[in-house]
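job 3f2a | input accepted
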Amino acid sequence: MKAIEFKNVSFKYGNNGNDVLKNVSFSIEEGEYIAVLGHNGSGKSTLARLINGLLLPKSGDVEVYFLNTKESKNLFEIRKLSGLIFQNPDNQAVASIVEDDVAFGPENIGIKREEIGKRIDFALKTTGTEEFRYRAVSKLSGGQKQRVAIAGVLAIMPKILILDESTAMLDPRGRKEVNDVIKKLNQEEKMTVITITHYMDEAVNADRIIVLSDGEIIKTGTPQEIFADLGTLNRAKLDLPRSRYIANELKKRGLPIKDGILTREELAEELCALFARI
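job 3f2a | predicted structure (278 res):
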């Protein structure tokens, strides 16, 4: 089933500006893990906000589970279906204590108190933040705050999770914490995930990558297909994932590294196997 569909969508800010998105069309199936890549100003964040109706297309249509965002009667349901996580977790915190922060969403959509308690338990357990339940949000690390922000969205029980540069302000440990949660939600809860990132090593976990450049989709494909296409990477001003770059450099120096290895874990396993044979 299609979770999201863009049909010839264009968008610009103000009446006299240039189009930020230009006649964009694509669809995302339920349960897919999608990474959206592109240089600054390519339209990635605009695309995220169009999905849950924070922005409306100037032309074309955006549908979330066949609900058109242009119809105001659909927006409440669309925003229940699609949770958006922003770059700075401090901008999403609405309560001083973690439990209250996670409860805020379901309280505001009229969920009964008993059910809210169950949702808080589920969201905290899923994001690994149970131990922070009664702690002050302000006392948490960046990665912990971002996991609490995800828990707050999960408590609404969305079918789609959209992350707009949600690891950009985090250190490597914080990014790993958040990405582990994202992978768990996609694999175990079958949640549709759209992650907008400038960290290429995060994109290798996706089922598909959508590459934007100057408001247009220039290529869609698997991580292996995208990162093998240097022409697309150059046009979109993107780098190779660090693990792929290291693998390429090792191959140049004569090590028999397999093609297609993208993740750090896969590269580490390959190197361990090679060294074991030496």
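job 3f2a | The first helix runs from residue 44 to 51.
job 3f2a | closed
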